[in-house]
UniProtKB/TrEMBL annotation, chain A:
Keywords: Ligase, Nucleotide-binding. One of its GO terms (biological process) is tricarboxylic acid cycle. This is CoA-binding domain-containing protein. One of its GO terms (molecular function) is nucleotide binding. GO terms for cellular component: succinate-CoA ligase complex (ADP-forming).
From TrEMBL, chain B:
This is Uncharacterized protein. It comes from Candidatus Magasanikbacteria bacterium RIFCSPHIGHO2_02_FULL_47_14. It catalyses: oxaloacetate + acetyl-CoA + ADP + phosphate = citrate + ATP + CoA. One of its GO terms (molecular function) is ATP citrate synthase activity. Keywords: Acyltransferase, Ligase, Nucleotide-binding, Transferase. GO terms for cellular component: cytosol; succinate-CoA ligase complex. Residues 239-370 form the ATP-citrate synthase citrate-binding domain. It comes from the Bacteria. The lineage of its organism: Bacteria, Candidatus Magasanikiibacteriota. The keyword Lipid biosynthesis does not apply.
Amino acid sequence: MSILLQENTKVLIQGMTGKEGQKAARAMIEYGTSVLCGVTPGKGGQEVETKPVFNSVKEAFAQFPEISVSVIYVPPFAAKAAVLEAIEAGVALINIFVERMPIQDTAYCLAAARERNIRILGPSSLGCMVPGVARIGVIGGPKQQADQIFQSGSVGIISRSGGMTNELSWQIRNAGMGQSTAVHVGGDLLVGTTYADLLRLFEKDDQTKAVIIFGEHGGSYEFEIVELIERGEFTKPLAMYIGGKFANSLPEGVNIGHAGAIVERGKGAREKEQALSRVGVMIAERYEDLATCIQTYV
Amino acid sequence: MNLYEFEGKKIFETYGIQVPRGVVVRRGENYGDAYQQLDVKEVVVKAQTLSGKRGKSGGITFASSKEETEVCCEKLFNTDIRGQYIAAIRIEEKLVIAEEHYLSITYDTNKRRPVLIYSAQGGMDIEDVPEEKIVKQWIDIRSESVGSDIPFANELWQVFLKEDTRLVEINPLVKTVDGVWIAADAKIAIDDDAFFRHEEWKTFEPRSMMGRLPTERENQAKKIDEGEAYYRGTAGKYIEMDGDIALILNGGGASIANMDALIQLGLKPANYTEYSGNPPREKVRALTEVVLSKPGIRGLWMCGVVANFTNMKETFLGVIDVLDELKPTYPIVVRRDGPESAEAIRLVRECAARNHLNLKIFNKDVSMTESAHVLANMVR
């Protein structure tokens, strides 16, 4: 098994006619993900990669009621409306690729999604990858490269960074292991799906034997992991790397790295490491060491 | 972006949050005139900085005459407030305070919704107020008002929503001896990503959280991500630093990990820079120009992950454009992989050969940290 995606995952791409939307369509289809259709207001009737484009999510659903995932590839100023449309239609999982979405719009979408029990992955999320099964978004890049990096295995991967999702996956593969699911949660201050949410899913997933995480300074999502472990809700081996140690020498309030990586008292990389280490999380000094940390458990 | 107190107070006023009457003076202006204009005897003279803790660092003083105000301002502009740049001084009427409270609204990232925080114990850092003295009320972002008796709670909620802020804070929220509520301070952090619906933000003066004015290079870099295609790849992130190793990093996450790796090796960054997403050649060229324009560079490290969808060829061509022009003699180490990497690496090698550059380039077979070691050996 895996988390978030299965073989029967059916994908809708909102913003499919745009440059990045087209690229995402190709990336998913070439990896074998079942992409059913796309939506771009005003461009209904067109086709991308032989898949039909509709004017609205409602129209798309009329034709394809089996849609289970929507991925959002629209400009930031159009993101809120697009996500709300997907929520309205009741899509179970929405992956927001959009970067630089205003935080108020994100909060609005999260509030609406919560009421309907809909999961949002992102914003600023490149998606997720279940090796050999499906991917949503562009994690892994072109298929040839994705096949060099990903192979089905038992390591779960979570990252605030899209690049590091790929890089960590490569370190795991390079060390002779494989991945169960690799997820990019996005680097914004507010995200729909956090480390803790995913660890709960990895805990229940038989295929996953250990998890590695790329975390960073700023924000408090790492501290949710501490509480999760204390409550006994995650019990598998977990290794983490926390970036941004140098940032503690910068003035409070400086934003360096992702949007959520703001220098704040008590939320530095070292403080997070200490808190995580106390509940038994293995802390890697270099990101390359994450593979070594979990090698004996998989 | 954080606003100065005087900018925040101007916004508060338009939402019906009363603030002390005041006048803003800039360095070198006539401070005495400003005092007289205010037409009250007792005044507070407050340094306008972007970071808090002014009170503890001598950034707030008192005066009761024109002469005293002049001396205060002169002195304040030359005070070191934890290295913060003083953009201006706000001279305002001194309140006769009966009570000091605390009120703020920000995002609770764990609950993923806004939270109103209130305490009848204000005037100090909220982190230092005991938990039992703090009232927290979580708000549905879709509500038009907050049901609350706390003074200015509703007005502050309007500011929070309509001004697209990440934080609004009144500390202290003062009750005067006459029973009037006044926001004695104003702290607002606006959400830069909402700029497209705030034409008025263009008028804010340039600033940096680094405790100084933004450098010319920082201002230049910021422009790269402006304009219609602002969201097509990010390439405007540049923070100037004291070191001599120029950096062109990739990705918000990998870049901070690589800063750590570099500093652990004893090297000193000349800047923090990263581009990510899939920026066009022109954006990367403009960013590279900024990074390499800094004098005294002893080495260049271009380091990024195995990219998911950043086109290596397109982005590297932007760097090559600048290397062709500058032909730097210091060591250059490149580590990167991703779509079209073979072609991109070939083009970089050709550029190095025709310009006789001291350059080493690696793909994913060498890890990012290993490439930092290579650079360290080359510059020593």
